[in-house]
Design brief:
Two copies of one chain form a homodimer.
Chain A: E1 4-10, H1 18-28, E2 32-44, E3 47-53, H2 56-69, E4 74-77, H3 83-99, E5 105-107, H4 125-132, E6 138-139, H5 143-152, H6 162-173, E7 179-182, E8 189-190, H7 191-197, E9 203-204, H8 217-220, E10 228-236, E11 241-247, H9 257-270, H10 275-291, E12 309-311, H11 324-332, H12 334-341, H13 344-351, H14 356-382, H15 387-413, H16 418-423, H17 428-443, H18 446-472, H19 486-493, H20 495-514, H21 519-545
Parallel strand pairs in A: 1-2, 1-4, 4-5, 5-6, 9-11
Antiparallel strand pairs in A: 2-3, 7-10, 8-10, 10-11
Helix pairs in contact in A: 1-9, 2-3, 3-4, 5-6, 9-10, 12-21, 14-15, 14-17, 14-18, 14-21, 17-18, 17-21, 18-19, 18-20, 18-21
Chain lengths: 547, 547
């Protein structure tokens, strides 16, 4: 299920605030975002150059377009610009709520930009309080906004200490929203302030993390704990009060901080997270976005909205590309892979004119190789933590052991006794490949070992299918009837083997999809795959050279 | 370096097209997006309900706000709406280019919405051709747009076959842009069409991937190759022609496809990728976005812009949170961790009143445990692929072996000979912990083994620092002078050990940051950490119980 969020706010051409910041924040939380624009701004990191408000009826039209068609999980409002637009937003939402249940709404009561530009006409403040606050699960004023809201409501508006912040938040709660997050960024506070207030017993939630966390001396060692704190106050109509302290960052890259925080809160509320936890997560997201902000523009730069996401290195599995990992592995080693699966050994075998000596050399060495291969699967069982993978690996061991007895029969047909077979010295190509499997298994995790086992499993499957497909073409170069190696071709193109191939494909694709690798880890897999593909080719070189 | 991209286009309140699709696409490519709005729409998946154009001067103002402040790496234009806005965009860009070098620009010549709504006034088409195309590295018309552009320019506008697409693309190239990507979504084509045209020798680039890829029979096995293809044609002024075929998707979720493709192209061009490769990547991104589209709205739904990104599970390292992995591990096991590092054994030891028998039992068992610990580090060396980690692990082995000789001396002081020490039976708690280290090392990769080694290294460091910190407080419960276990406390709180702790912290944090784990992998680490923390506590329980 995709979570759908709606922002009703202004735009910021420079992309750091407004609906742009909201949509980026939604996306960085893997949520779907819709947006209703109340006013456009020509704006950059140095200030607001121009504003072009949306007509109130057009604001209503946008809201109706979204809500009439799409199920929205949570809404935020940002800059509403003027009384007409405030009234239009409130009226349209209320109309929607006549037939639908209310949607959690976060109201960021944006009034003035960081650069001092008026973003809500002063005469619109009362409308916002009367019309929007009662629809809101949460309002998120900063200190200047709180002072405006309080003074307009005839409430005390002195906010210079943590104690006064607590009082102010309580008073703001009386304005109609179900909760108030009073953001303390404008008031310098310290750990001492926090200690003093805890007497009154609000719950303290550090976000991003408690710098005074218990039992983490090793993480503090040599570091001076932050002296200056930012403390946000959350008051809920349930009576619950939380404080959210965090180290104060010395940064000018705070353009769009309020938008980002309220958008992140909207994501969390949409996900159904409770308000205190939502605030902790949203505050942590925003804090790190400021701390890792890129350097963009000449003024107060935007935040880093991207810190919470990574690029997926293997495409999602889909109907048109069900094996994206395997495909990328083969594509990344195209010529080596081709040199393996269309090796001269294979072609001569398909034509039925492969030297018997080469084939026998191959069979003898493969007999040795299969011991390593069986042991590698046994190691895979050893590295597994659940009965299913243990059982699957051991079944393969049994199959490989059975396969080896076919080698014994093969050799017997051509007059080679089991004792001669057993005593055939192992070729370097065999040792290289076999020992590499065991080494890889010892060195890495079960996925890396599985990767090492794939070039053999998949490659022989490819050879089988290719020869069979070619044989079906008119006047094919592949000889079927009377080919002395027909059984070999039939084995590897046959259903039993091909079903093992499909199981192998499913295993690595499922594992890779469930545990998406980082770039570095994917590169490790690629290297193992490539190495094994080369070793496979080397194995057939060996057979041809009788080396 | 953050890549900065600018879109100049209309809005889509429902979030699937326009600047919303562009910003989502930019974000999903981890690029920074700015946006200039030419017109706002009230729109959803069923159609466009209303349009409110931006005044031309306000469009210019937005462009100036962005370009005067921010270095933009690439630009795209989408819906420009009318002649005045086309002229305003062209004029403002040209003014900027008088003092600055030109920025790669992708022009998506949006004319009509999928739902049939006019998005560019017919009289504005000529202005777009004359003013915008010459500024463009690439234009990306679909078939209806191409027909409009060609007929307005007095060129043949029949496009019903792949051959006519090639001609049309060539003709479109004469309109002034440096390249043309003619999108073939509206023309049903087949593999046979492709085979016929290859005679003329354009380069064929499958995107997302070649369904007829060489040597991938195993991936086709049992699947019928797509019969219906979409083929895009790319003509460049260099004369290079590329075809981009892909399976045609049967999907109604195509709202914003053109916006998304041109935005993805803008990302690639901004990164400096050449046009053919950029088209391949952007086409693959868009194809998968359609194929994995969520179900949103009642009409032609939006694409899945998020398929290319994953949520980062461990926060970025930052100054206020330099050890995010370790912090989350400790927080996730807070009570178990506390039970370990503030164990009664530790408290009694700090007070100097720990039973001598308990301490000696601990020392004897620790002597056995350290053998496992040394072997686990030797295994870590075995699992390493570079000299540095091999050397680091072996240094630890040497240190641990030296530490064991201190145990021998300790015991000698208290009248226990080395032979008695060696012959002390191993307690189950010792075997459990030691064997778990070796098992984890055998089972997983080097990071998982490192994880298993951390609870011991970090926990003893924590105990040392805690006791030292407590000892420094006035009237401390910790006895320093005359404490019979002082040397033990000094060792673990001392510089040598603490520098090993910091190296350990750096190792796991650096590895986790370089190879960000999936949720599943992080959970595996957590489980190993928690298990070892419990085993550590169990070790001290054993010492207290003499078990």
């Amino acid at each position: 299920m995709t979570l759908v969020l709606l922002t009703i706010a202004g735009t910021d051409s420079s992309g750091g605030a407004g609906i742009q910041a909201d949509l980026k924040t939604f996306t960085a939380h893997r949520c779907y975002g819709a947006s209703v624009i109340t006013a456009m701004t020509a704006q950059n990191t140095t200030g607001v150059q121009a504003v072009h408000p949306s007509p109130p009826e057009f604001v209503a039209e946008q809201i109706r377009s979204v809500l009439s068609d799409i199920n929205v999980d949570a809404i935020k409002t940002g800059m509403l610009y003027d009384t007409d637009n405030v009234l239009s937003v409130a009226k349209t939402l209320k109309q929607h709520y006549q037939s639908q249940t209310m949607i959690p709404l976060v109201c960021d009561p944006v009034c003035v930009s960081t650069s001092g530009h008026v973003l809500l006409h002063p005469d619109a403040i009362e409308s916002m309080i009367i019309e929007i606050f009662p629809l809101s699960q949460l309002i998120t004023p900063n200190i200047p906004e709180a002072k405006l809201l309080l003074s307009r409501s005839g409430l005390p508006d002195d906010i210079t200490s943590l104690e006064e912040m607590l009082t102010a938040a309580q008073n703001l709660l009386s304005l109609g929203s179900r909760a108030v997050l009073l953001k303390g960024g404008h008031i310098p506070l310290t750990y001492q302030d926090l200690c003093r207030v805890t007497a009154a017993n609000p719950r303290i939630i550090w976000a991003p993390d408690d710098i005074y966390d218990q039992n983490m001396e090793i993480l503090q060692n040599g570091r001076i704990p932050a002296v200056d704190l930012v403390i946000d106050v959350l008051c809920q109509c349930s009576g619950e009060i939380n404080l959210f302290p965090r180290p104060r960052l010395q940064s000018t890259n705070t353009h769009g901080t309020g938008c980002t925080l309220s958008a992140a809160l909207t994501c969390q509320l949409g996900m159904g997270v409770d308000l205190a936890e939502a605030t902790k997560k949203a505050t942590a997201y925003t804090h790190l976005a400021i701390e890792t902000a890129p350097s963009i523009g000449h003024g107060s730069g935007p935040l880093n909205h991207l810190h919470s996401i990574l690029i997926r290195r293997i495409p999602l599995r889909s109907q048109t590309n069900p094996y994206p990992l395997t495909r990328s592995l083969i594509q990344g080693t195209a010529s080596i892979w081709k040199g393996y699966v269309q090796h001269d050994f294979v072609k001569l075998l398909g034509k039925g004119i492969l030297e018997r000596g080469s084939f026998l050399h191959f069979i003898k060495q493969d007999y040795h190789y299969l011991k390593y291969y069986a042991r590698a699967y046994a190691l895979l069982a050893t590295k597994s933590h659940a009965y299913d993978p243990i059982s699957a690996a051991m079944e393969t061991v049994v199959t490989v052991v059975r396969e080896s007895s076919m080698h014994v029969e093969f050799c017997a047909q051509w007059g080679i006794s089991q004792s001669v077979l057993e005593n055939t010295p192992e070729s370097p190509a065999t040792t290289a490949y076999g020992a590499f499997l065991i080494d890889t298994g010892l060195q890495g995790d079960s996925m890396k070992l599985t990767m090492a086992l794939m070039a053999c499993l998949l490659g022989y499957g490819e050879v089988g299918l290719w020869l069979k497909k070619e044989a079906c073409k008119p006047n094919s170069w592949v000889v079927w009837d009377g080919n002395p190696y027909l059984k070999w071709i039939e084995d590897y193109s046959g259903q039993d083997y091909q079903s093992a191939v499909r199981k192998g494909l499913e295993t690595i694709e499922t594992k890779a999809a469930a545990d998406p690798p980082s770039e570095g880890r994917l590169e490790e897999w690629r290297q193992v795959w490539e190495k094994c593909t080369r070793l496979e080719k080397g194995f057939w070189d060996m057979a041809m050279n009788l080396s």
